[in-house]
Amino acid sequence: MAERDRSAGQNGAGSGAPDGADGGTDLRTVGVEEEFLLVDPHTGAAVPAVDLVMEQVPAELRGQVEREFQTSQIEIGSPPGLELSSIRHSLGVLRAALADAAERAGVRVLAIGTGPVDGPVPPVVDQPRFDRMVERFRLLVPGPGNNGMHVHVGVPDPETGVQVLNHVRPWLPTLQAVTANSPFAKGADTGYASWRSVEWERWPSVAPTPFLASHEHYERLIRQLIASGVMLDEGMLYWYARLSARYPTVEIRIGDVCPSVDDAVLVVALVRALVATAMTDIAAGRPAIRTDHHLLVAAHWRAAHDGLEGEGVDLTDGELRPAWELLEQLVDRVRPELEKHGDLDQVTDLLGGLRRHGSGAARQRAVFARTGRIVDVVADVARQTRG
């Protein structure tokens, strides 16, 4: 939420490949940002400990760890790359270092969409832009901390990027269901697989990406939204997919932060393959699906409510289908790009693990069903976060 737009600098998807690809090939670079919650190790309540944790982060990693919107949040960013193995390594190193730093600071770090335990809302980080956001939007500030995952994929130019946004929008509810990882709030089951999604919708600039006629249309909408007052600046463009303001990437930002590195790597691979598939369709002159906005909103609501264990809206025909069936359709659609990038075998293995263990929301609910204690849910999420 801090929206520093680091997508292609030290931590993003565009550095090292200015045209969004590698050495003139059609392989796409990718990078990821993950936001985490800092909690009391005994109660699981969110704590304003970001400064204490930042002090404990090893000096060599501090360029990849940053404060977020609230003092109970902290963020990491992977360097960009072509190989999933490098993304996996970066996330593993950063998560382990962050978990160690949090323990030295007397807290825990959780890869979870929002805080599961009731408690005081931690203050916002002391920064002029954040102060202006609080002054304008007041009680829209979320509860314990709203933690997402943002995947950046390289594209050659803004006009192509806008077309990519049009092509990927019908598939984003399925990715949202895959990442659902916040079923609890205030110590109780919310009935949603992703309560973060519900909290996040309170901000007026959060929405599915509209169907865009051109890059000029994209920029005009941004100017109009800022003029309307629902955004302070371009950084508050909280569409589920958008262009980077500074670098040649599209950013897919629909998901809860994933509980484990395995989950994150799976989502990264699917997002990259989806963007690459869109670019193949664009080059072949195949049009994007013109999904009705209200049906798209319904599909995102259903993904937040049911997650991967329930049903979802098939945006090709508007019918309800098992969410796993929609995920299988997505994988089939992007399979050629998974093969081209060398990701298919790993994605197949990771999908098998996801089917065995369930989504992050399902895992949390399984722990609570066994013990009846939210603190046990917190402990299990902390274990998955560290890996």
UniProtKB/TrEMBL annotation:
Could you tell me the EC number(s) of this protein?
A: 6.3.2.2
**Positions with biased composition (Gly residues):** 11-23
Quick one: a GO biological-process term for this protein?
A: modified amino acid biosynthetic process
Q: Specify the domain of life of the species encoding this protein.
A: Bacteria
Instruction: Identify a single GO molecular function assigned to this protein.
Output: glutamate-cysteine ligase activity
Q: Keywords of this protein's UniProt record, alphabetized? A: ATP-binding, Ligase, Nucleotide-binding
Q: Decide whether keyword Lyase is in the record.
A: no
Xref: SUPFAM superfamilies: Glutamine synthetase/guanido kinase
- Catalytic activity, per the record? L-cysteine + L-glutamate + ATP = gamma-L-glutamyl-L-cysteine + ADP + phosphate + H(+)
The record describes the protein's role as: ATP-dependent carboxylate-amine ligase which exhibits weak glutamate--cysteine ligase activity.
Q: What is this protein called?
A: Putative glutamate--cysteine ligase 2
Native source species: Micromonospora rhizosphaerae
